Recover the amino acids of this structure.
C-alpha cells in the first residue's frame, strides 16, 4: 500500500540564510495492505514531515514513493483522492456540530447532499458520536474530539488513512477508545499509518512499526520481531548460595540457551554476598514460556532448587535504546 525509497526533505531557515534543517534524511518503508503501521520516534524525529510528504501536503526534495497504487510525484491528485489524513491538532471548528462538519467534509469530496447526510449519520453511529454529535464541537472532551477527527478522515471511504499522533494528550481510557476505532477501521479493510511517540501505542496497536530517529528508519518489523532481535527472552534465576556453579555447568551447554550472565550480587559465590543481594543468573532464550518447564527439569535433575524464577521480556524501549543509544523521551 506504501513503498518509499530514500524519501527526504529539508527546510530552509531564516529565509534561506540559516543552515537548512534536514527533517527527513532518506526514509525507506514498506506498508502492506490492511495493516496498522506505526511510525515511532521522539519529538522532532521527522514523523510529521514523513506523513505530510506521503499525504501530498509537502513536496519531497528527493526519493520515490508509491502510495495507494499511485506514484507520489507523478500522480499526487490520484494519491490525494485515495487517502485520508488526520492532522495532529485535528480540524474541527468550535461553533459547528460534528454532524455539520461530517456533512460538509463529505460535500467537499464531491459527495451529493442526500448521500452526505446519510454518511454523516452512519459515521455518528460507527464512531459513537450520537450522544454529543449534535452539540457544537467546542463543548467536546479531547477524546470525543479525536473520534470526530477520525470520522472526518474516513467520510470519503479512503483505502489508506494517515493519523498524526492521534492520541497525544488523551487520558488512558480515551486513548483506548481511539485504538478501538482504529482497529475497527482495519477490520473493515483499511490500511492505517499512524505516527506516535508512545511505546505502548506502538506495541499494543500496531501490526508493524518503523522506528524513526533523526529523519531515518533505524528499525522496522513487528513489535515482537524487533524485541526478539535485540535480546530474545530472558529468564532471571535467584539461587541458593553455593548453587550457582552447578547451575551454570548444566545450563550453559543447552543449545536453546544463547547466553548466561550474572546480574547483581558481588559475583563471589561463597555464601557471603557483598551487597547483601543474592546474584541473579540471567539466561537468554528464544522463547521463555516454552523454555521455562525444561529449565526447571534440568535444574531439578542437577539438585538445584531456585529461590525465584522470573520471566523478563525486552520492551520496545530496549529496542530504541539499542538502536539509538538513548531511551525514548515520551513527554
Ligand atoms: N516548516 C518547517 N520549517 C523548518 N523546520 C521544520 C519545519 N517543519 C519541521 N521542521 C523541523 O524538522 C524536524 C522534524 O520535524 P517533524 O515535525 O517532522 O518531527 P516529528 O517527529 O513529527 O516531531 P513532533 O512529534 O514533535 O511533531 C524538526 O527539527 C523540526 O523542527
Amino acid at each position: 500500500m506504501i513503498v518509499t525509497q530514500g524519501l527526504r526533505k529539508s527546510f530552509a531557515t531564516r529565509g534561506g540564510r540559516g543552515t537548512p534543517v534536514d527533517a527527513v534524511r532518506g526514509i525507506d518503508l514498506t506498508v502492506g495492505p490492511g495493516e496498522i503501521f506505526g511510525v515511532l520516534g521522539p519529538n522532532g524525529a521527522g514523523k510529521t514531515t514523513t506523513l505530510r510528504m506521503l499525504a501530498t501536503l509537502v513536496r519531497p526534495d528527493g526519493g520515490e514513493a508509491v502510495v495507494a497504487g499511485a506514484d507520489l510525484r507523478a500522480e499526487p491528485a490520484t494519491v490525494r483522492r485515495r487517502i485520508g489524513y488526520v492532522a495532529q491538532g485535528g480540524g474541527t471548528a468550535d461553533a459547528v456540530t460534528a454532524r455539520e462538519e461530517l456533512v460538509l467534509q463529505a460535500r467537499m469530496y464531491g459527495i451529493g447532499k442526500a448521500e452526505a447526510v446519510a454518511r454523516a449519520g452512519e459515521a455518528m453511529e460507527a464512531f459513537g458520536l450520537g450522544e454529543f454529535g449534535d452539540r457544537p464541537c467546542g463543548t467536546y472532551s479531547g477524546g470525543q474530539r479525536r473520534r470526530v477527527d477520525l470520522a472526518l478522515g474516513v467520510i470519503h471511504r479512503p483505502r489508506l488513512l494517515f493519523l498524526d499522533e492521534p492520541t497525544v494528550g488523551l487520558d488512558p481510557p480515551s486513548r483506548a477508545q481511539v485504538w478501538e476505532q482504529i482497529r475497527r477501521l482495519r477490520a473493515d479493510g483499511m490500511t492505517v499509518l499512524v505516527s506516535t511517540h508512545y511505546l505502548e501505542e506502538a506495541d499494543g496497536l500496531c501490526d508493524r512499526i518503523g522506528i524513526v530517529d533523526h529523519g531515518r528508519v533505524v528499525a522496522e518489523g513487528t513489535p515482537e520481531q524487533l524485541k526478539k532481535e535485540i535480546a530474545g527472552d530472558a529468564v532471571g534465576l535467584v539461587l541458593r548460595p553455593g548453587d550457582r556453579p552447578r547451575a551454570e555447568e548444566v545450563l550453559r551447554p543447552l543449545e536453546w540457551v544463547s547466553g548466561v550472565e550474572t546480574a547483581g550480587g558481588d559475583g563471589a559465590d561463597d555464601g557471603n554476598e557483598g551487597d547483601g543481594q543474592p546474584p541473579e543468573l540471567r539466561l537468554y532464550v528464544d522463547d521463555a514460556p516454552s523454555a521455562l518447564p525444561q529449565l526447571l527439569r534440568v535444574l531439578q535433575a542437577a539438585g538445584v532448587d531456585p529461590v525465584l524464577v522470573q520471566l523478563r521480556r525486552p520492551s520496545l524501549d530496549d529496542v530504541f535504546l539499542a538502536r539509538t543509544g538513548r531511551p525514548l523521551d515520551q513527554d
